[in-house]
Every structure is written in structure tokens, then in C-alpha cells.
Design brief:
Low-confidence stretches: 1-6
Number of strands: 0
Structural class: mainly alpha
Helix content: over 70%
Largest sheet: none
Order of helices and strands: HHHHHHHHHHHHHHHHHHHHHHHHHHH
Mean pLDDT: 89
Length: about 450
């Protein structure tokens, strides 16, 4: 029962709370009142209604099940389980008892037991759609995607408009890397439900993944025929047109999304990209600026603006925008990487080194990042820190000659002949061609007698 503002039962109940009068409600009225408060998230009022309801109807199973629901919500799982066991003795054929029991198992990460209980509930009711969905979700928790997919398919067999099940089926196909199978399933589904824009949209995504852009385009066309206000279909259609180098048409599709709904930063960003590819730089930067204005949290916008000016060699503007981006999100790895690269081009070596260091701290452990930071430390005369940097990198990239030659040169420079010789020999063993690294960074090292002797020795072997 849905309540409107003037619903008599709800009005009487709230009046009773205000006046402390005790009014009588039948159990179904209490159920509707409780359901109303739960839907609104008003837990305190729901709990009051349950308490008063059970005072007036102490044997009502449904009211006790609401009490179980509150227990589960409050994570009082033992109390919920105890009450369910009591209810099961009284009413063993009530499928809601099994659903709540499964919910408790699920909360305890006992998903196999949850599935077992839900399958028992299937025998107690003809209304199995929700049960199929719950079983499918439990299989998802177990990463049993084939089983999950099978149950979500049962949902869709019973209700062609169960889009939640459809999304979950596609998710399972994608996780299992079954793109061809997803295409076959969606096409079969669309034979039964040809005006389902969600299915056409999902089919388009699968064709896009297969790089079959013409079929993807056709799928999005059908999605738009089914619902000409479907923003997602226009966005994806635009992406396909970009891949097909039909950039003006892509811009048209992205622009349509701006008229159908509030302008999205993502659409503005894609339009900017298209204009940049068309070498219409004024409109490109205009749309990038609109992107970051619309959504300052969308990193693609800041990265696009920064790279735009970077390509133009306008490093002052590039560093201005990447600094703005970092002020908004100082934990974004991509921002710090760009910050480091631009500062390096500007010959602000201390800032560049700081950028690479922050990039590594945030989890970017690409070899090039370690090398760039280490070379800057050498340039700054921070040889000890450079050694520490390269040795850390060597733990991640063992037997890497680029790292070993750098360490060899650094140790020879600090007159640690043993470690210098160790890294030089390793570097020569792993890749002789990179010996030029020493000459570039420390030309004097190659003139050392010990180094010449090691090189001569290796050549003779």
C-alpha cells in the first residue's frame, strides 16, 4: 500500500504519537505504515511502529519479520537469527523467513549457505523472480559467474523488462571475456524485445569491444529509435564515429546530449578532442575550458588542457593548468607525472624531481619514472638519494642494465670500487649496448683504470 499525504492510517498513527493516545490498527495497517517509514529511511519511526504493532498483534509473523529486518540493518545478526529460528518453528512455509535467513548468511559472507536457503524458498512460492535475482547476486559474491548468469537469465525469461538482470548478465559475460557469447545472447533477447534500448546499447558496447564499428553504430541507431532521448546511446555513437574518423558527425552526437540533459563534462571533453583532431584549436580549448568548469573533478579535462599547451610548447600555461588540477586533487598520479615532465622541460629540476617522487609515492612504479627521477637527482648533485632511488627500482626491475650502469657510475664516483665493479659487471652481462649511459651521466668514470680493466676483461671472455 502506497501512502499519500492524506492517508488516513498514517495520519492517525502520527497523531497517536503526538498525543500519546493508544489507537487500534489492524496488522496490515501496521505493515503498510512500517513499510512506508522503511522506504523513507526513517528507522526510528519504523521501530516505533513495529513495537506498537507487536503490542497489539503479538503473533503476527509479518510484523516480526520487520523486526528481523531492523535487526539485520543494525547488524544485530544473532538477535535476527534467533527470532527467525522461532518464526521457522511457527511458520516453516513462509518464504520471507528463508529470504531473511539467507540475508544473514550473506552478511556473514556465508554465501553457499545463503544460496542453499534461497533454493529451499523456491519450492514455497510461485513468485520466484526476486529469489532468482537474490541467488544470482550470491553467486556473484562467490565469483561464480556462470551460475550467476544462469539465474539472471531466468529473471529475464520471466520479465523482459528486468533491466537490472540484463546488466548483470552482460557483466558476467564481460568478466568471463565472452564477448561473442554476449553478442549472441543480446541478439536473441532483442528478437523477443526489439524495442529495448538498454539491450541495443549493451549490444553496441560489445560490438565496439570487438572493433566491429559498423555494427556498433547500427546498434546505437536502434537504441535511439527505441528512445530518442537516450543520452548514453548518443555518447557511445559519438565514440564509434570518432573511431571511424567521422569527427563532425561525432561532434553532432555529443552536442545532442547537451540539449537532452544538463551539459556533461565528459561530452564537452569528447567534443574538445574531436576539434583538436580537426585542428580547430580555438574550439578545442574552448570546450576543454568548459569541461573543467562543468566538472573540476574530471581529470580528463585538466589532462587534455595541459597536454594541449604542452604540445604547443606553451609550458607556462601547461604548468598553470596542471597546478590548478593538483590543487583540486593532490592524489592524482597522472597530474604529478605531467607536473614533473613540464617542470623538466622548463628546467625547474627540483620541482620536476619532486613531481616524480610524488608520482612514485602514489603508486606509479614504471621504470621510466624511476630513471627520470634518478637522473634529476644526479643533475641536482643528490647522488646518495639517487643511489637509494635506483636500488629501490632494481628490486622491482631486477637485472635491468639501465639501472645497473647508473648505480655502477654512482658507486665509482663515491670511490666504492667493489659495488661499482659489481653493478658494472652485471650491466655488461645483461646488456652491453647500454654502456653509453655511463658516458652520458659520468664521462669521467669510463676513464678510470679499474673501469677500463673490467671492460677489457669482459671483451676477452
Amino acid at each position: 500500500m502506497e501512502f499519500s499525504n492524506n492517508n488516513l492510517s498514517l495520519t492517525r498513527f502520527e497523531s497517536m504519537l503526538k498525543t500519546n493516545q493508544i489507537l487500534f490498527f489492524d496488522s496490515e495497517e501496521f505493515e503498510s505504515i512500517i513499510h512506508h517509514y522503511l522506504n523513507l529511511g526513517k528507522m526510528a519511526l519504523a521501530k516505533k511502529a513495529i513495537k506498537l504493532g507487536l503490542n497489539q498483534h503479538p503473533t503476527s509473523t509479518n510484523l516480526k519479520l520487520f523486526k528481523v529486518e531492523i535487526y539485520v540493518f543494525e547488524d544485530k545478526l544473532d538477535e535476527a537469527d534467533k527470532l527467525l529460528n522461532e518464526l521457522h518453528i511457527i511458520d516453516a512455509s513462509n518464504e520471507e523467513i528463508y529470504i531473511q535467513k539467507a540475508n544473514i548468511y550473506s552478511k556473514k559472507d556465508k554465501h553457499e549457505q545463503a544460496i542453499e536457503v534461497l533454493k529451499k524458498a523456491l519450492d514455497l512460492t510461485d513468485d520466484v523472480l526476486d529469489l532468482y535475482s537474490l541467488i544470482g547476486m550470491e553467486y556473484l559474491f562467490l565469483d561464480q559467474f556462470e551460475n550467476a548468469k544462469a539465474f539472471f537469465m531466468k529473471c529475464l525469461d520471466l520479465d523482459l523488462n528486468d533491466y537490472s538482470a540484463l546488466y548483470n548478465i552482460v557483466y558476467c559475460f564481460e568478466y568471463l571475456s565472452q564477448t561473442e557469447e554476449a553478442v549472441a545472447y543480446l541478439n536473441t533477447f532483442l528478437d523477443k524485445n526489439p524495442y529495448c534500448e538498454i539491450a541495443w546499447h549493451q549490444l553496441g558496447l560489445q560490438y565496439f569491444n570487438l572493433e566491429d564499428y559498423e555494427k556498433a553504430l547500427a546498434s546505437y541507431d536502434f537504441a535511439i529509435i527505441s528512445d530518442d532521448t537516450f543520452v548514453g546511446a548518443y555518447l557511445e555513437r559519438g565514440k564509434v564515429l570518432e573511431e571511424l574518423k567521422r569527427l563532425e558527425e561525432a561532434i553532432e552526437n555529443y552536442t545532442i546530449t547537451l540539449t537532452l540533459d544538463e551539459p556533461t563534462a565528459y561530452a564537452l571533453y569528447r567534443i574538445g578532442r574531436c576539434y583538436e583532431k580537426l585542428e580547430n584549436y580555438d574550439l578545442a580549448i574552448q570546450h576543454y575550458n568548459r569541461t573543467v568548469h562543468e566538472d573540476p573533478q574530471l581529470d580528463k579535462g585538466w589532462i587534455a588542457i595541459t597536454k594541449f599547451y604542452n604540445k604547443k610548447r606553451d609550458y607556462q600555461k601547461a604548468i598553470f593548468f596542471i597546478n590548478k588540477a593538483i590543487n583540486i586533487d593532490s592524489e592524482n598520479v597522472a597530474y604529478w607525472k605531467l607536473y614533473a615532465q613540464i617542470n623538466q622541460r622548463l628546467k625547474f629540476f627540483e620541482e620536476a624531481e619532486r613531481g616524480y617522487k610524488k608520482t612514485i609515492e602514489l603508486g606509479n612504479i614504471e621504470l621510466n619514472t624511476w630513471l627520470s627521477r634518478g637522473d634529476l637527482l644526479i643533475k641536482l648533485g643528490e647522488n646518495e638519494t639517487a643511489i637509494f632511488n635506483f636500488e629501490q627500482a632494481l628490486e622491482l626491475y631486477p637485472e635491468n642494465a639501465e639501472l645497473e650502469y647508473r648505480l655502477a657510475a654512482l658507486y665509482f664516483t663515491k670511490k666504492d670500487i667493489e659495488k661499482g665493479a659489481f653493478y658494472l659487471k652485471n650491466g655488461l652481462k645483461n646488456n652491453k649496448d647500454y654502456i653509453f649511459i655511463i658516458d652520458e651521466l659520468f664521462p669521467k668514470v669510463l676513464k678510470k683504470v679499474i673501469v677500463k680493466n673490467i671492460l677489457k676483461q669482459i671483451e676477452q671472455e
